[in-house]
Design goal:
Largest sheet: none
Distance between the termini: 46 Å
Radius of gyration: 26 Å
Structural class: mainly alpha
Oligomer: single chain
Order of helices and strands: HHHHHHHHHHHHHHHHHHHHHHHHHHHHH
Shape: globular
Helix content: over 70%
Strand content: under 5%
């Protein structure tokens, strides 16, 4: 049996292999302390800037990005396979200095620019060179910590913008000046909405997540899930679904959540009797779904609220039913697989006691207060997150005292020793949380800056309107509007999945919200439903082959076939592939403008529909399903997911009939 240290080393190795955010340089000794201090100070600056700074937006954002570049190049090597301890090559130092200098130059000269740089015609070659350097350094950092897909999109759009604008009769220098003015010196490019939201909200919530993680809440969630469903049939898999949903809600990283909770749950599932591929798939699909779990939704809820112009609490409310359906589908599939394999749960003497868990319920205080503050609009989002950070520090005190008491020696100085050790423990916890928060925000910030470039190019060239016109032109040739909309939704789904391969969800959502969401809205899709649609399919890229990073991380823990794991995870996450199409065509799925009774009916029919789809894919309910019954369940499940009296009646008849026939087959087989 491996030690806790061994498990930690294995987890770090897996994160480096499958998660670009974790493939960082190795700093030890004095350099480690310097990096920790730098990142901790940056986190504190972000909190102060968000709450109290009155400087101009451009000043705050350029100084913010300048420091992000420094931290990014200090953390991310050019190649993860050539990492040397306490070493940074000269070319990285050069890139770091000139990239940060470009943004700091803008920051320090903003007052001059505000007076003289009123349009692209005021640009000089020197200003364009500074903008080019800043953008190229950002793009190289994007290659290192985010990946190539979003970088390729940004590069192609920059080239397209240059060719398009030059074709309008402008000289090459005039085009470059105009592009740099848009992409670097205005708030329509790198300094656009994605980075603004990131600096204003997301970074503070990432810091909060780092504090919350160190309170021990992940272990608390896993223990609660064990106590709740650990003894049920196939209990460990159900534990994985519940714990990953709760942990992933805060973490915002599919791969990170898969590795963190999977190192505990996947071995338990295999020991229970699930196959390695199924065990890894359960963990990957549940961990990925954590990002759609209200109220935090991996910090993407705040971006969605900004794009849609609504309160983030409203976004979380709309996300409840789709999230419930997603996890209901995974949970049902796990239960049916356990019944098919006749798997048992864990013995009750192995499960945590509720009495012990209730004593730790105070760990939920930061989350509860945060949700209340956000939902009631008592405080701003950023202020609410800061209050939650202080509460996370407060609830960490009992744990620090407990560790100090366990480590204290006997004798007259034991009380003093406990106090000193507890204070040192709290100091380390605060420093580590601040440092981890700053390091964790680099990837999101860089991805959002690339999304800003994409949005800037689309705006400058009018590409969005061209795409909308083209799609509407194609749809007008279709025999029906419904078919045209379905084709548009399928194409959008494919774009989201391709762009989401290995790309943070927030960046993928920013790109799709700028490109595809307006097309769907133009075709008649409800704006809220359109944004949820692109958000969902950006997420499932983490479990969709061929680049299913969360599934591959789970397969490494389970020692299973990666491709089979990805296919299993896709089947388990059937809700994420079907539900978005439903609420795109029927917005009542996200409970918009619904009364209590209507909403309850939508919830019931949707859950029964997801059950039918999960059962048909699993091929088992009371006994093995024959092909006819599976087709009946698929048809019934799909009709139940589309709200409406006729579809509901047809769905209940098909699903009820299939279940009754399968039950009678089981009774005959037993007889």
């Amino acid at each position: 049996m491996g030690t806790e240290k061994d498990t930690k080393i294995d987890s770090e190795k897996l994160m480096r292999q499958f998660d670009k955010e974790s493939a960082t340089r190795i700093w030890t000794g004095p350099m480690s302390k310097v990096m920790k201090l730098l990142t901790a100070v940056f986190s504190m600056y972000c909190i102060w800037s968000t709450l109290f700074s009155t400087a101009a937006l451009e000043v705050r954002l350029t100084s913010f990005l300048g420091v992000v570049i420094i931290i990014g190049y200090m953390n991310y090597p050019a190649n993860k396979h050539h990492v040397r301890e306490n070493h940074i090559p000269w070319y990285d130092i050069v890139l770091m200095i000139i990239g940060a200098a470009a943004f700091f130059y803008y920051c320090m000269n903003y007052n001059t620019f505000a007076r003289t740089l009123s349009s692209a015609s005021k640009m000089t070659p020197m200003l364009s060179i500074i903008g080019i350097v800043g953008i190229l350094v950002l793009m190289e950092l994007c290659r290192r910590c985010v990946g190539l897909p979003i970088l390729c999109v940004a590069g192609v759009l920059i080239a397209y913008s240059f060719v398009t604008l030059k074709g309008n009769g402008q000289s090459a220098m005039e085009v470059i000046n105009r592009m740099m003015y848009t992409l670097f010196y205005s708030t329509g490019g790198v300094l656009g909405t994605p980075v603004q939201v990131c600096a204003k909200f997301i970074v503070v919530f990432i810091v909060f997540g780092a504090f919350l993680e160190r309170t021990g809440i992940s272990e608390f969630f896993i223990s609660c899930a064990n106590a709740l469903v650990g003894s049920a049939s196939g209990g460990p898999a159900k534990v994985a679904v519940i714990s990953s949903a709760l942990c992933g809600m805060v973490s915002g990283s599919s791969v990170g959540n898969t590795v963190t909770t999977g190192s505990v749950t996947i071995p338990m599932m295999k020991k229970t009797g699930y196959s390695p591929e199924f065990s890894a798939a359960v963990e990957a699909s549940a961990s990925t779904g954590g990002q759609i779990m209200p109220p935090i939704m991996g910090a993407a809820a705040f971006l969605m609220a900004e794009y849609m112009g609504v309160a983030s609490g409203q976004v979380a409310l709309w996300a409840i039913l789709p999230a419930v359906l997603y996890f209901a589908g995974v949970f049902i599939a796990v239960h049916l697989e356990a019944k098919k394999l006749n798997l048992k749960g864990m013995s009750k003497d192995m499960l945590p006691k509720w009495g012990v868990l209730i004593k730790k319920v105070y760990l939920l205080l930061p989350l509860i207060v945060l949700v209340w503050l956000v939902a009631s609009n008592t405080r701003t989002l950023a202020f609410s997150a800061v209050i939650a950070i202080f509460l996370a520090i407060f609830v960490s005190v009992p744990g620090a005292i407990g560790k100090a008491m366990a480590n204290a020696g006997e004798g007259s100085n034991s009380k003093k020793s406990v106090a000193v050790n507890a204070l040192m423990g709290m100091k380390d916890m605060i420093m580590n949380s601040l440092s981890a928060g700053a390091s964790g925000c680099v990837t999101v910030v860089i991805a959002c800056s690339m999304a800003g470039i994409v949005a800037g190019c689309i705006t400058a060239t009018g590409l969005a309107s061209k795409l909308i016109t083209s799609v509407i032109g194609i749809s007008s040739q279709m025999p029906s509007e419904a078919l045209a909309l379905l084709i548009a939704l399928i194409l959008t789904m494919l774009c989201c999945i391709v762009l989401g391969m290995g790309v943070p969800t927030t960046a993928n959502y920013c790109i799709m919200a700028s490109t595809c969401a307006p097309i769907l809205v133009q075709m008649g899709v409800n704006p809220i439903a359109a944004h949820f649609f692109v958000f969902y399919f950006g997420i499932v890229a983490d479990i969709t082959p061929p680049v299913a990073l969360a599934a591959y991380a789970g397969s490494a823990i389970a020692k299973s076939n990666p491709m089979k794991t990805g296919i299993n995870a896709t089947k388990l996450a059937i809700g994420a592939f079907v539900v978005p199409f439903v609420f795109a065509m029927q917005p009542s799925m996200i409970l918009m403008d619904k009364g209590i009774l209507d909403a309850l009916l939508v919830v019931i029919t949707s859950i029964v529909g997801i059950f039918a789809l999960a059962a048909s894919l699993n091929g088992f309910v009371f006994k093995k399903l024959n092909p006819v019954l599976r087709i009946m369940l698929i048809a019934g499940g799909l009709t139940l997911l589309f709200p409406g009296l006729v579809t509901d009646l047809v769905g209940f008849v098909l699903v009820g009939g299939a279940l009754m026939l399968n039950y009678l087959e089981m009774k005959r087989a037993r007889a």
